[in-house]
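Exercise: predict the fold of this chain.
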Amino acid sequence: MRKLVAGVIVAALALLIAALPSTDHAQQVVAIPTGEALQAKAEKLRDAFLKGKPEDIPVLFAPWMQGRFQLLHAEMPAEYAKMTAEDKASFSKAWKNRASDDGGMVGDPDPSDMLKIVEIDDFLKLSVAQVLAMQLGYYRVHGGAATLDRLDAKWFLVDRSMGFEQYEEKVGKESHWLSRTRGRVTFMTPGSRDGFFVTCVAESAEWQVVDFEYRLGPETNSVSKGMQNQRWDKLGKGGLFSAARRAEGEQMLGSLKGQARVSFAKTGAAPATLTAAGVAAGERQGKYFKVRDKVASQRESGKLMCEPVAADSEDGYCVLKFKWAGGEGTFTWYETLEGLYAAHPEFK
């Protein structure tokens, strides 16, 4: 009789335990989306960027990433309101001359004029998707001669990985350790070895896109680079009009590069300074940026550097590296002077 009672009690306990909510980690892992789903999400974003319209891109990102894009867009009117009439006229002029050989923007954000921007006021008419597309270099990719023939290339999946990671999130003075499942997919093309890389995190049994990066010939960009900083409270570092102010720096560097190359052609030697190339001090000073006098030179190339006029500016620091013979140049922007010095110690 005692054995029978004990058996009934054990059976009842077993039923009660089975009815309790499970906290078994193995059951939680089952909810993680599959590698096939990760790949499908990455392919959809890749095709939207390379073959779709700007409106196709933001909707493929995680909800909180879409919120960041919308925040940047919503801050544009306030940034615009801070600009004087002189600022607006200066930017409009720089935008119109952006494609010129010297004095324009080496990195023309819209080489085929797809956005039909004439004056700075036209930026306020852009949609969230159009602003994001500009930040990501979409119009350069779809309007530049160096990349048009790459848009229809055949892509191959070369890597698909998933893993569990822990990361530190700082809120004010407090730090919190969080965890998430992260996935990354890599596609490449034959011959050119162009690359497209998509990063996702798992949430509610779905993959959510948080970043992507591409390499298409001379063009490289990513969401984290285009937005400058993925932290929502530092998003944009001055917003879209930071790019407008940077246009002045690029324009000055491009123009002074031309004068340095003229000196090089006349003497056969690279000038040590812009002053030695015949550049007056006032030519190196703009409203937002100033160009350093030093010309850093190697055998076949030279470098010029510009920095903000205002000590509290967050518009960054730029180095223009160019070839003495052909004049081709590349701008590289740095968020801090220390970062620029680390990459180009000759400017210290």
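Check your answer against the key: Residues 88 and 308 are 18 Å apart (CA to CA).
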